[in-house]
Design brief:
By secondary structure, the protein is an all-alpha fold. Helices cover about 75% and strands about 5% of the residues.
Amino acid sequence: MHGAHTFLLALTVVLGVAAVTTVLFQRLRQPVVLGYILAGLIVGPYVPVPLVADREIVQTLSELGVILLMFALGLEFSLRKLVQVGPTAGVTAVVQSSIMVWLGFVAGRAFGWTVLESVFAGAIVAMSSTTIIAKAFDDLKVRGPLRDLVVGVLLVEDLFAILFMAVLTAVATGAGVSPGELGATLGRLGAFLAVLLGGGMLLVPRAVRYVRRRGSAETLLVASLGLCFGFAWLALAAGYSVALGAFIAGSLVAESGEAHAVEELIRPVRDLFAAIFFVSVGMLIDPALVARHWVAVVVFIGLVVVGKSAAVGLGAFLTGNGVRTSVQTGMSLAQIGEFSFILAALGTSLGATREFLYPVAVAVSAVTTLTTPWLIQASGPAATWIDRKLPSRLQTLLSLYGSWLEQLRSAPDRHTLGTRLRAVIRALLVDAVAVVGITIGASVGAPRATRRIAEALGAGPETARWTLFAAATLLAAPFLVGLVRNGRRLGLALASTALPEGAAGRPDLAAAPRRALLAVVQLAATLAVLLPVLAVTQPFLPGVPGVAVLLAVLGVLGIGFWRSAAELQGHVRAGAQVIVEALARQASGGDAGGAHPPEAEAPGPRDGLERIRAMFPGIGEPTPVRLREGSPGAGHSLSELGVRGRTGATVLAISRAGASVMVPTAAEVLRAGDVLVLAGAHEAVDAARELLGAERFSPAHLDAPEDRVG
């Protein structure tokens, strides 16, 4: 009975205080997650308030909150959707994890921590919190592509966390990590997922549909929760996280087509235990420990908020997302959570780290949990501001990047392209593994190799070390060159497929956008490979040679990227000029005058902009729209509307009576009656038209006297 009374008291204290704090935060119009964390601080053992809940009981109940939140997230994220965002989410997760592991390691070494402690610190700051984001997205009602991308990245990060735990355990215990052991770890993880997903697809959707047809709502609730906790237990028994198992269970239930009904049934239960989870996070905050290590806490909070926002945003953009989605994704993932706690506790239990690392991780997690809802809310305005501040040539390139990828996805020979890409990617991986192997081998074998070199040459230790460094550099150089060359091969394959060359003997009209796409892909491929190489080899490198190599390579590629962006800007400006002249000619029924290329002579109403699209490939499909009287866009500047930042489309030109504008600046004010030429991916153009409240401007309109623009 004593145990039951303790349990009842803990539940009463937690829910009672949480009820008061969440009502207060709702009145203040702040996210309720913050109220839960404040409640945890109040009922925790570190604040002198006479309301203390049993931490073990709360932690046990909070595990149920993690399981139910992940199950609900899986209900919204079917396996088909996971396959769709998998490549994008995978590359984004690789880029951000590599950058954050490196930043965390460098920060740890700057504080004088040991190499192993710094490695653990890097792994800790690389893991975002699925549970915190899921709750924040629910509270803020975030839906659509942004949510899908963020969840995909989180799932890949969870898989990385499993690998981190296996690798760090082997390193911390002195067993080392051989290629065979790492391959076995990956193989076991793959086999577990294959069995769980394969068997689940055969049984779970059919079982859920059967229960839905034959049973009541109560039966469906009990059966769904049984599947949820069953899969969570299977994952735990296999040595993985309960969150992974619960997410897979939700995804399998979603395949039954009954996800909405199940979600409605479990929502009250999920919200109850999710609240307890966030209270448990607040209970871990020890103000005294935070004060003692406040410098490290502040530095790592900055790394997580700024570093993860930038790293995730960079990865999301390089995989084809627009500026707005990339910035929002980055700011949504700027926190650490449950896996970071596990990694910190693992380091302490293995004796690999001192005890200070766990409270630092908890403090950083608590603060970034507080900031997450605010960052998500601020991500939209931040994306608009960033887009507005970018150089014009970069704005143009970013706007058209999505349309190029759209063309690539619809290219007729993309199946043949897949074979070519696989060969290039294999070559990239071989080069990367070779560089890592040479670097680690030279570092680990340095003492013995230095002695032998000194004996053979009759030189001193310093000369022998420099000789070894030079030999390792010469040995790795061909593979580094291979990384850059294979990145270029990858870019050429994609660029030539999306923007093929014209017939022999004719001008290559797609040269400028093709070079721009090549530059972007080469830069992306180089980053996606060199960043993980740097993250893995940094603990074995003295000083900053790895960073110097990365910066040198990126500097060379950046110059080419900047030049190609300038060429693209000229290409787009020429296309905008011809489009404006065509609109004027079609409206006036004659030659509008002015210089224009011979190929642009009088495209008539029947072909409209088709010939111009053929003349200036790579600028998407320019779509003319007209602002009506009373349109939301009339009377506002492009900067105020945030057309590019909010939709991803760009305004190539504005045709209006009296004066037309090619590639308008952000300060350009729109007027009723303006004909705007939008470019970008189809989805972006449609979003921009809806934002502006504009109507499509077809060739039929161009001949109507009342629609003349000049």
